[in-house]
Automatic annotation (TrEMBL):
Entry-linked Gene3D superfamilies: NagB/RpiA/CoA transferase-like (3.40.50.10420)
Domain LUD residue range list: 104-212
Annotated protein name in UniProt: L-lactate dehydrogenase complex protein LldG
InterPro entries according to UniProt: FTHF_cligase-like_sf, LUD_dom, NagB/RpiA_transferase-like
Annotated organism of origin: Streptomyces harbinensis
Record SUPFAM superfamilies: NagB/RpiA/CoA transferase-like
Span of the signal peptide: none
Pfam family, one: LUD_dom
Length: 214
């Protein structure tokens, strides 16, 4: 008997008393587990975990956001930036249009063209403090998934405390499973068997997270 047969046999025995006509949605699922460990400072925990993952974390208020984004792009030497259709217009108001080309998040823009773009600026759907994770769901201020995976530099804005939740359990009810969810914990990275870390393999090499207190 193979391991597969053993596993399937256990599944059949576990389901032996389930009526054939019963559907999963008809059975209530008990969710009395702890949804969060209730950190004293969720925003501070988020910033700490993001930094642990080698993301660059910045803090500002709504008034200082345009100048901060302009500075981050300038320090990067960005000559072009992807702009999602729903990105608040004021966010890039301090970025000089004559030196930094705006690339629209349009279906006609190819992956090769995105690869030539220096940076992308987006919002997010939610941020999770306990795991240091930023979640994108393709909303108007985030654009298509490829726009945040191909360019090498991603600046993502998180409104705090409104967009910060404590745990994954609190984040899931806020997200739609039919949307293209991208979960980001630091810059894209991988390592080989020797544990040599390589960044930028399947996403941005540099992730900058701006925590904006409104």
């Amino acid at each position: 008997m193979s391991a597969r047969d053993v596993v399937l046999g256990r599944v059949r025995r576990a389901l032996a008393d389930v009526p054939r006509e019963e559907r999963p949605e008809q059975v209530p699922v008990v969710r009395d587990y702890l949804a969060s460990h209730s950190p004293a400072d969720p925003v501070g925990m988020l910033a700490e975990h993001l930094a642990d993952y080698r993301a660059l974390v910045h803090r500002t208020d709504a008034g200082g956001l345009p100048e901060l984004i302009a500075r981050l792009l300038a320090e990067r030497g960005s000559g072009s930036v992807v702009v999602p259709a729903g990105l608040p217009k004021g966010w890039l108001s301090a970025v000089p249009a004559d030196t930094v080309r705006r690339v629209p998040d349009a279906p006609s823009v190819t992956a090769a063209e995105l690869d030539a773009v220096d940076s992308v600026v987006t919002g997010c759907a939610v941020a999770i403090a306990e795991t240091g994770t930023i979640v994108l769901d393709g909303g108007p201020d985030q654009g298509r998934r490829r726009t945040t995976l191909v360019p090498d530099h991603h600046v993502v804005v998180v409104r705090v405390p409104d967009q910060v939740v404590e745990s994954v359990g609190q984040a899931l009810p806020l997200l739609s499973p039919v949307r293209p969810l991208t979960w980001i914990s630091g810059p894209s990275a991988t390592s080989d068997i020797e544990l040599d870390r390589v960044e930028g393999v399947h996403g941005p090499r540099t992730l900058e997270v701006v925590l904006v207190r409104e």
